[in-house]
Design brief:
Distance between the termini: 4 Å
Number of strands: 13
Radius of gyration: 22 Å
Strand order of the largest sheet: 3-2-1-4-5-6-7
CATH class of the largest domain: Alpha Beta
CATH superfamily of the largest domain: Glycogen Phosphorylase B
Shape: globular
CATH topology of the largest domain: Rossmann fold
Largest sheet: 7 strands, parallel
Number of domains: 2
Structural class: alpha/beta
Amino acid sequence: MKIALVLESFDVAKGGAERSTFEMALCLSQLDMDVTIVARNVSGISSRDFPFHIHPIPVSAHSKKGQWMAFEKALEEFFSSNRFDIIHSMVPIKCADIYQPRGGSILHSQQRHWASFGQGAKTTFKKLTNGFNRSRGQRLLNERAICDLPDKPILVALSNYVLNQFKTLYGVPEKRLHLVCNGVHINRLKNDQAVAEGEKLKKLYDPQGNTSLLLFAAENLRLKGLDYLIEAARIVRDQLKGTDKEFRLFVMTGSDWSSYWKKSNGYQLNENILFMGSSDQMPAMLNMCDAVVLPTFNDACSRVVLEGLAVNKPAITTQYNGAVDFLEDGEYGQVIDEPTNVDALSKAILKYCEKATTQLISQRIEEDHLFDQVSMFRHAKELIQLYGKLTFDAEEKTGQKIPI
């Protein structure tokens, strides 16, 4: 079966949606799908061999809106002259068979983006100036138009969180909605090298066995709640004074973290919060830590939480993260109501400063084989089942057999 995966940018060195699409393409290819990634911008692939095809569609225009519209037109021309059994798009295009926004609904993401600025003049300013982002505005119009169509594309949600966005914001009927929970490629996380390197780091940062190691990893630090996490860390530090317990929070990011570092140092948290920058040591860091913490304002289904679960690490996150689908109402992690709820966040961290608690939850995660549930191979297999259903329906309408 020939599958086209459509996105705007493809760079295997990046995280988020681009990394997720890469892992999805890899797993689909290993499951005997003929996969082609179609993207406007392609980078970081010159010295790599992939089991799938990559087809760049470069376009030029004077504005970002113009670039998007030129890309959309170029896609229509490309797919009119190149046959694929399934067009699976991460961006809102009408010619797709499947629309799977890996960041969730564009409209909902916009609303949560505003919320991350808090109340007051800054949020009002963001709303007033939103119209100047014409590129995002055009994508939003496309998404609305797609949701108003009677049949296709099918909207595939990465989580119940995203599924509900399309139900409530657009009134998309059940027949056009499909849930395929997100996954991660676990082989790079669960291997002897990653485990061994994680153990070395644990001995370095927790030599006495009384320091809880927490991992925060993100790029958009405001949207992912780092400001409030630092506030919670100050409360935790004060609560642990006079005890034999300690904690360290590792902040991994490729973004500018200087303002957060200044705030952390202003609270004298330089011993508790370590800013690591970007690193290719994520597998080792995940194996080192006791828990993952991500007090996000919005995540369709956070990769770092799933990666933590893949190596048996519990998570602290918010109701605005689709990854809560895997936490079983707190059995494998703590879910707080709002990222701004510093009191609830600090209490969750204090709970995970009990080594016995995190070890018990980690053991439960391992015994329940949660790594199978968060696997990208599981995600890919469910997609292939959906592809089969869509092609079967197409055969019923046209009478032409589609090879699988």
